[in-house]
Design a protein that fits this description.
The protein is an alpha/beta fold. It has one domain: Muramoyl-pentapeptide Carboxypeptidase, domain 2 (2-Layer Sandwich). The protein is built from seven helices and eight strands; from the N terminus they run αβααββββαβααβαβ. The protein is globular, with a radius of gyration of 17 Å. Bound molecules: zinc ion (ZN).
Length: about 220
Amino acid sequence: MRYFFTFIVVFSLLFVSACTKEKPNSHSQLQKKSQNQKTHENPQSSQKDLHNIEKMNVSKNRNAVKTVAQPSAVNVLVNKKYFLPKNYVPKDLVYPTVSFIFKEKIEKRKMRKEAALALNKLFTGAKKDKIYLSGVSAYRSYVTQKAVFNRYVKEDGYENARKYSALPGSSEHQTGLAIDVSSSTGKCAAQSCFANTKEAKWLQSKSTNYGFIIRYPK
Ligand SMILES: [Zn+2]
């Protein structure tokens, strides 16, 4: 029982828009995203934080957010209250053998070994049920998340960026244990419309068998 529980906590299977590069391009989309995003958003911040993302993560918000003590623990909890250390990079990142919606062997294809092996099994299991999945985005370093977030701030303003992008240090992607997935066609990749697909339904019923939980069900 304990083993099962641990595994559920261990990996996160993310497949909604909240944390990805796709920006909302319509009002309704933005709303949907906002509703689905509670755990992707970060601690409430004051205006003072606007130009001080870095500082906020490191020291200013010491009272509001905590830095996790054991970032490499497989059951690490990372969210708006618990941040990973800025310099944390998992030591056992590997490339899962599954297909992604892109070809390149780049950072976002990587996962920690244990998660990558579980993902391989999950994709194989899906195939047996004629469900064809693709990875969209897995590991993301602090530096990458920071660049992504800052770009959104520039384009959209801080408050809007916070609605669909995690502050650096608070993205589960930095754990190397989380991945966004889509169908092999890439349709609705990291968008809320994925929730209505047969692939999403399969994941909903089967992913815990492989140690994953779905973090953004809609
Ligand atoms: Zn994500």
